[in-house]
Every structure is written in C-alpha cells, then in structure tokens.
Amino acid sequence: MEQPIAVTRQSFDDWMVPVYAPADFILVQGEGSQVWDQQGKSYIDFAGGIAVNALGHAHPQVKATLIEQAGKLWHLGNGYTNEPVLRLAKQLIDATFADKVFFCNSGAEANEAALKLARKYALDNSGSEKNQIVAFNNAFHGRTLFTVSAGGQPKYSQDFAPLPGGIIHTPFNDLAAAAEVINAQTCAVIVEPIQGEGGVLPADPLFLQGLRELCDRHGALLIFDEVQTGVGRTGHLYAYMQYAVVPDILTTAKALGGGFPIGAMLTTNRLATTLSVGTHGTTYGGNPLAAAVAGMVFSLINTPAVLEGVKQRHQWFIDGLNQINQQYPIFAEIRGGGLLIGCVLNKDFAGKAKQITQLANEEGVIALIAGPDVVRFTPSLIIPEQDVKEGLARFARAIARICS
Description:
Blueprint: H1 9-15, E1 27-31, E2 34-37, E3 42-45, H2 48-51, H3 60-70, H4 83-95, E4 100-104, H5 107-126, E5 132-136, H6 145-150, H7 154-157, E6 167-170, H8 175-181, E7 186-191, E8 194-195, E9 201-202, H9 205-218, E10 221-225, H10 240-243, E11 249-252, E12 263-267, H11 269-272, H12 288-301, H13 304-327, E13 331-337, E14 340-345, H14 353-363, E15 365-366, E16 368-369, E17 374-377, H15 385-403
Parallel strand pairs: 3-15, 5-6, 5-7, 7-10, 10-11
Antiparallel strand pairs: 1-2, 2-3, 4-12, 8-9, 11-12, 13-14, 14-17, 16-17
C-alpha cells in the first residue's frame, strides 16, 4: 500500500485555487468540541465548521449511522428513491409547516431551488411580468450566480456581471423601505431571520411580520433562508417558530447534516406541484448516505433537552463575553440568538475581527468573523460547559494581546 502524500500548509498554496486564505495550520482530528492539528496542538472549536458541526466532531451515534449506511447503500441517482430520504422528509414535515421537501447538497442549492420555485409559480399563476425578487442589503444566500445576486453584498457579486436581473435590494429591518418596493410584480421576498454573514444581525419581529403581510397583500411568496439559523441554532428548531411568522418556503442546510453535505427546501402542497418532473433536479441530492446521517442528526437535535440546552449555552457565552468586555472594553455590542453570536467591535478596533481570530488561533481557540467588524461564534449545540469556559479563557488572552 502506498504511503499517503505528505502535505503541509504550503501545499494549499501550491495546489489549490486560491479562493480561501486558510489558517497556517492543518487540523487532522476532532472529538466533541475539540480539534487537533498536525503538531498535536489542541483547539476549542467555537466555529463549528461555520454553524455546521451542530453535534461537534465524531459524535458516536452519528458516526455509527454513517458506518451502518455505508455498508448498505451510498448513491442511486434520482431515477430511484430510498428509505433514508423518505424518513428524513417525514421528520422535517412532522416538525415544521411543510408538506413537501426537495433535497440537495448545500444551502446555496436550496436557495437556488427556492428562487426558481418562486419564479415558476408566479409565471404559471400570474404571468411573466410577476418576476421581481426582493432581498436585503448585507444578506448572504450562497455563491451561485443567482444566489450571489440575491445576496446583498456587492463584494461577492460585482466581478461576475452581468448578473441575473429582476432582483431589488432594500435595507434590512426597514419595513417602510420594503413596502416601497414590494408590489404586484413581486414574486418573492427572501430574508434571513438573523443575517449571519452580514454581521449576526437579528430581524425585528415586526419587520418579519410586516413582510408576511406585504407578501400576502401582493401575492408574493415569503422565503426564509434558515441555512444558518436552522436545526436548533437559535434554541428553536427553526427560527421562524420564535417569530410567529410562517414562510411559504424555507431553506435549510449546514447543521442538517452535522458535517455531511446536505440541503433542503421545504414548502407547501400548494407550491410544490409547480416543480413537476424534469423542472428541477440534482444528481447527489437526497442520496441515502447523506439522508441517513441527517436523519440521525435531526432526531438528536429536535428534542427539548438539546433546544433548551442551546439557550442555556447562549447565556454561558453572553456572561463570559461580558466579563471579557468589562476587563477589555472592545465590543460595542454582543448580539444574535442561541449559539449564533456576534461580537461587534467598537470604533477603536474597527476592521480587526480577522486579526482577533488569528490571535485566538494562536491561543488555541477557533472563532469566525462576520464581516471586518464582527467576531462570530457558532459552536456545537451540545458544547460542554468546561469547553466554553476554557475556550473563553483562551479567547480572553487573545483579546488582551490586541488591547495591549
């Protein structure tokens, strides 16, 4: 048997298309909320693979499910169905407003499907003039050409013009501004209950309720992008449940597979028939391996103990971060919900979020950014209290360094 190819961080620069700028170490092992690099250095994982590893690394029950399914059936293609995907669909339907589910491989694909459904539903029922999509400034919905156009961050889209048309952006949390652009030509409004990449900015309940009313008034579909907020991240199974606003379409991914790639679009019977055989599809979406893993992840998270535990862990983080901020006044605001937390840097430290996360890496903790001015935490939903305390102690050392 050949020895595996030796790799270092330099290998990334030598062999990979440079769309990322990864840390200068390579992680090789994970268990729970801890990971280790090639040199054996340990890190507390407060990033969770960008809100993906909702049950941490190598969760024993998820691992067992993966191994069991790997011994049965991996992939079939969409000319055939399979047992795990049907069971997962029923789990999602039973737990949400949805009647039907479409499975894919990522959040971007789920949002692509949602936007295509909205356009086609409007075409079939109202004609070609009803094609406008309303989205929000600083939103993030994926990296396909359609979803990056719907996202409200020009830095991600401006180099790929001409972009798909018929998309209007308006300020987030500004209902009056939204009311000015949502009209009879609007086929859909797409919104994140908490803007993740855009700075961990929660929607005002009245804003989302107002969007629901505007969509109903103008015959538009309301799409909730819950790729980052879904599957327990906010302490509710899906964030729409805490806002008392039910969307027409919901997208979910990230935590759904607990680390295994899977995405889904949830909708109602009324809308689902719009996408008839051949109108949309995906080769890998809904494969039995991904669906089996997601089914186990979903069943473990969709319990009162885990969801209540998220709220408890939120408080552990808020208390610890406030203590850090009392000693080193660096954050203007700490916001978010559940275990999607954003620490907004004050004006004296503007633009230094990336530098802080790099110092945190050196101290043995992994965190994220949400733009240049926000440090973001999206850890495992079941992270132990000891790991929270130790991770925040390491993070405090990083903050002390940047404040010195």
